[in-house]
Specification:
The complex is a heterodimer. Chain A is an alpha+beta fold. Chain A contains six helices and eight strands, in the order βββββαααβββααα. In chain A, 41% of the residues are buried. Classes of the chains: A alpha+beta, B alpha/beta. At the A-B interface, β1, α1 and α6 of A face α7 and α8 of B.
Chain lengths: 247, 198
């Protein structure tokens, strides 16, 4: 019997038949896998909490052809505090959707597993989920191989903003150089914060001051990169996040 | 196919039921064949009747055979207490306890951002309209104790509290007849959090 024993995070969980659930795990060793968890909807199931989204655990899976089967597992961290605040919960779900939709099945993605776990750890402690979200988006884009070129204008190398972010090149261009039609204006301050996020990641993020305007600019650039480079046009949890930010 | 066409069609129909595979569908089909004709007709009529006559209560969203359901019609119930649940089946589960004497509001699901289910897909606007009149003193949030249910409860609490209502959440803990040794960490820690004077 082929088994997989790995640390993993539950990205998604959905009902499957009467008492089962189908979960999507991001495992440390085998990347994204789809798993059938039998009988977990029954009230006495000892695996019920193990298949809840945003749960980090150690899982033992039987590798199947179409789907893996959950054999055993134990919770390492349930990220309980993320369930207690709507904004933090919605942000965590947004991270999970981004990862789920940008990764293929069964391809190891250790760096992204570490990135996602680190993001959830930081999100638990940070009072500003939007700042963590921008840092996570940029780090994910970097890990997926689409790191934007931010060291001056793509054509002439000009070092002072404002710039335009050109999605066709994945780079910034100055106002004097040619740019594609879907380019968006981005301030020098936003470029500086993006460079900081890409260089230092979550390190000392709590002391990094990011204004709402700069956050919005970085958010639009990342959404554009996800759309043009990864084909993620509509990110459902992002729409929900935007709706709850208003109330 | 090994079966005559009418039997094959019954087997195919039974297979559409949740949790029924080909073998069970065959067993059910042969059981139906063994029944007197009148019973089979009564069974088929009951199903069609239920499908045709069941609708949602205009007030709470529960299953009903009239404009309002049996709970909303009952004037003896506490009209100032409202229990919010995800599904009409949750109403039946709570009614079986005979403990809750207030009214219900059925949301029709739970918020799941990753699946594209937001507040607009649920009956939250109707809940706001119902509670906005000031006739309720307490709203009990009885959504499922999972991530989606918690998020839904958080969202509703966030929009109802400014209205000055008392918003409560059902308790979490161990199932009766359960075993501490086999309970998971999350359930145990919640049970510990929700302990009360003995």
């Amino acid at each position: 019997m082929v088994e997989l024993r790995s640390d993993a995070l539950v990205l998604r969980s959905r009902d499957w038949r009467e008492a089962d659930r189908q979960i999507t795990l991001l495992t440390r060793d085998a990347g994204k896998v789809t798993v059938l968890a039998r009988g977990v909807k029954k009230s006495k199931s000892k695996f019920a909490a193990l298949v809840e989204p945003l749960t980090l655990g150690r899982y033992l899976l039987h590798r199947g052809k179409a789907m893996d089967i959950l054999i055993q597992g134990e919770i390492v961290k349930p990220y309980f505090s993320l369930h207690q605040d709507l904004l933090h919960y919605a942000t965590a779900q947004y991270f999970c959707e981004l990862v789920e939709r940008s990764l293929p099945n069964n391809e190891p993605a250790v760096a992204i597993f570490i990135l996602l776990v680190a993001a959830l750890e930081i999100l638990e402690k940070d009072a500003n989920p939007a700042r963590v979200a921008r840092c996570f988006e940029l780090s994910l884009i970097d890990e997926l191989g689409f790191c934007p070129a931010l060291e001056g204008c793509f054509y002439c190398g000009q070092q002072s903003g404002p710039y335009y972010f050109d999605f066709a090149h994945g780079a910034i261009v100055c106002g004097q150089c040619p740019r594609s039609q879907d380019s968006i204006l981005i301030s020098g301050a936003a470029v500086a914060v993006m460079k900081r996020f890409l260089k230092q990641g979550f390190h000392r993020l709590a002391i990094c001051s990011v204004s709402a305007t700069v956050n919005g600019e970085i958010g639009r650039v990342c959404a554009g990169v996800f759309r043009t480079s990864l084909g993620l046009a509509e990110i459902k949890s992002r729409s929900f996040l935007a709706s709850i930010e208003k109330i | 196919m090994f079966y005559p066409e009418p039997i094959a069609r019954v087997i195919e129909a039974f297979q559409k039921l949740p949790g029924v595979g080909p073998k069970t569908a065959q067993r059910l089909a042969f059981f139906v064949l063994s029944l007197p004709r009148e019973e089979v007709v009564a069974m088929a009529r009951a199903m069609v009747n239920a499908r045709d006559k069941t609708r949602y209560c205009q007030s709470c969203g529960n299953f009903s055979d009239a404009e309002t359901c049996f709970v909303c019609r009952d004037s003896r119930r506490d009209q100032s207490l409202l229990c919010v649940v995800q599904d009409p089946r949750d109403v039946l589960a709570l009614e079986r306890t005979r403990e809750f004497k207030g009214l219900y509001h059925v949301l029709g699901g739970a918020i799941s951002p990753i699946d594209g289910v937001g507040p607009d897909q649920l009956r939250i606007r109707e809940l706001l309209a119902r509670t906005g009149g000031g006739s309720f003193r307490e709203v009990v949030l009885a959504t499922n104790p999972n991530v989606e249910g918690e998020a839904t409860a958080l969202y509703i609490a966030r929009i109802l509290k400014p209205l000055g209502l008392r918003v409560t959440r059902i308790a979490h803990g161990l199932p009766v007849g359960g075993d501490l040794e086999y309970a998971d960490e999350v359930t145990l820690s919640r049970a510990m959090e929700g302990r009360r004077e003995f």
